C-alpha cells in the first residue's frame, strides 16, 4: 500500500526517549479524554478496585494506519444501502424462520431467541418501529495490485466502539498536530489525511431519532432511553460517550444491567404494554422507556437463567422501540450473510440479495463487497462442496468456519476446522458457515497496550456504522444514516480481532 507521507511509514522511532515521549502523551491524552476501559482483574489483582475507580488506556496504535481512500469512501458510501438491506431482511419473518430452522438443531441459543419471537407474535407486537445501530466490518483484500473492501460480517446487535472510535480519531489528529512534526523522522503538520469521525454523535443521533418517533407517554410519564448492559462491563466508557452525546440533547438516559430488567421494570397494565422503568434509587420516579438499546443479550452468557429469557421477552413484547428486536438480531446471523453471498454458480434459485435489494446499482455495489461463503449442509451443491473444502487438510487452510455467535473468540481457523467438525455430529454441521479468508496487505505499526509497546506486522479491520429506523408493518424507512467509522488493528499473528476480547486495538485511518 502507498505511504501516507511519501516516506517510510510509520516512521522509525528512536529507542528510549522518543518512544517514551509519544507513549506518555498518548497515556495522558487518553485518560484526559476518555479513551479508556476499566482494568482487567488480572492487571490490578482480584478485588483490588472495590470502589470501581480505576481506568486504564484503551489499547491503541501509535500512528494511524494507512488505508486506501477509495476503499474508505466506498465503504462509507454503501452504508445506507446496507442499512436498507438489513431493514428489509428483518421484515421477512418467513425467510429468517427458514434459516433459523436450518441452524437451530445444532444451536440452542438461536432456537430460544426464535421461541421468544414466536411467543410475542402470537400475542401480537404492539410496537412496529424497529431501530438498528449497525456496523458493517471489512478488510481490504489485495488481488495483485487491486485493492478492494471485503465484508467480514454485519453486526445488528451491540455494535460497539463507536464511542472510543471517535476519540481515537481525535487522539491521532492531536498527535499529528503536536507530536509527529517533532520526531527525528518528522511528519509535517497537515500532511496526513485524517478524516473526521462522528461515530459517537452519529449513533446517538440514531437513538435520538427513535426517541422522538416514540412520542409522548400517554400515561403522563417522562420518557427515556435505557442502555441494557452486561454486569461488570469493562468497556463502559465507550457506552458512556454515546450516553453523554444523547444527554446533550436533553434525553434522559439510564443504564440498566440486563440481569436487573425484571427487578426495575414493569409493563403498564394497558393493551399498549408500555415498558416502565422505576428508578432504583427513587422508587417514586417512573419513566416510560421509549428506546431499549441492547449492549447485552447477544450471546448465551447473558442468559444464565430462565429469568434472563423472561427479561428479553418483556422487552420484546413491550411498546418500547427495541434496538434491536429479535428479528433484527437474527438478521445478523452469519447464516444470513452466507445465504446472501453463496457463489451464484452453486446457489440454487434467484439471488437472495436481488430479492431484498431490487435496485441493480445498489445491489451490485453491495455484491462487490462479498467474499465466498458456503453453507455446510449435506444436500445442496454449495454445502457438499463446502464439506469437501472444510475437511481437506490443504483446502481448509484458506477458510474460517463460524458459528452463529457474536462478540469474538468463537471462530475456527484453517487447520482447526476439520478438528472441530470431528467433534460435531454431521447433521449439525449446518449450524456453521464456511468463509474464505480475506488477505489484507501487510502493514507495520506499534500498539500501546497496558503501557507496553508491541511493534510488528498488523492487520486492520474497518467498521462503518449505520443507523436505521423503520416500520416493520409498512416497510417505511423513517431514518437512514451512515454514522462514522471504526478502525481496529491486530497483530498479524492473531486470528481474532476484537478489542474487547483482548486481541485487537483501536486505530484510525490515514487515507492514501
Ligand atoms: P464476531 O461476531 O465474533 O466478531 P467475526 O466474523 O467478526 O466474528 O470474526 C472475528 C474476527 O475474525 C474478525 O474480526 C477478523 O479479524 C477475523 N475474521 C473473520 N472472518 C474473516 C475472514 N473471512 N478473513 C479474515 N479474517 C476474518
Ligand atoms: Mg466481528
Describe the structure.
By secondary structure, the chain is of the alpha+beta class. The chain is 34% helix and 25% strand. Strands 3, 5, 6, 17, 18, 19 and 20 form a seven-stranded antiparallel β-sheet that branches. Strands 7, 8, 9, 10, 11 and 12 form a six-stranded mixed β-sheet that branches. α1 crosses α7 (162-178), α7 (162-178) crosses α9 and α8 crosses α9. The longest helix is centred in the first third of the chain and has 17 residues, at 162-178. The chain is globular, with a radius of gyration of 23 Å. Adenosine-5'-diphosphate is lined by residues 137, 139, 152-153, 400, 402, 406-408, 410-411, 435-438, 461, 496-498.
Please give a quick description of this structure.
The chain contains 17 helices and 21 strands. It is α+β, with helices and mostly antiparallel strands and 512 residues long. Adenosine-5'-diphosphate binds at residues 137, 139, 152-153, 400, 402, 406-408, 410-411, 435-438, 461, 496-498.
Task: Name the features.
seven-stranded antiparallel beta sheet, alpha+beta, globular, binds magnesium ion, single chain, 512 residues, binds adenosine-5'-diphosphate, six-stranded mixed beta sheet
Alpha-carbon distance between the two ends: 8 Å
Number of strands: 21
What level of helicity do the residues show? 25-40%
Choose one word for the global shape: globular
How confident is the prediction overall: mean pLDDT? 95
Into which percentage range does the β-strand content fall?
15-25%
Find the structural class using helix and strand composition: alpha+beta
Radius of gyration: 23 Å
Number of helices: 17
Cofactors and ligands: adenosine-5'-diphosphate, magnesium ion
Task: Report the biggest beta sheet as strand number plus sense, adding barrel if it closes.
Answer: 7 strands, antiparallel
Low-pLDDT residue spans: none
Cofactor: Mg(2+)
GO molecular function, one term: magnesium ion binding
Binding site for ATP: 153, 334, 402-411, 413, 435-438, 461, 490, 496
Pfam families: GSH_synth_ATP, GSH_synthase
